Amino acid sequence: MDSKIDFATIIVAICVAAYAAIMLAYVAHDFGLPGAQIRRLSMAAALFLALPVALDLLRSRPDKAG
């Protein structure tokens, strides 16, 4: 099986993430949270979710070491 990620997959992932962010901001505004608090919480959540993905992509794999 080929594990290549193509351009369309990246575009779809970005669009889904943007749609989820818009929906969560809408719900947060309904709960009465101010914009500054929504920004801080969304940055913390993005860091919490993106850090493991970035670390997995940056680690060296023994099967690809040259």
Largest sheet: none
What is the percentage of strand-forming residues?
A: under 5%
Individual helix count: 2
What's the number of extended β-strand segments? 0
What does this structure look like?
This protein is mostly helical. The protein has one domain. The protein has two helices and no strands. It is elongated, with a radius of gyration of 17 Å.
Break the fold down into its secondary structure elements and pairings.
Layout: H1 7-30, H2 35-58
Keywords, separated by commas or semicolons:
transmembrane helix; membrane; transmembrane; mainly alpha
Compact description:
The protein is mainly alpha-helical and 66 residues long. The protein has one domain (7-60).
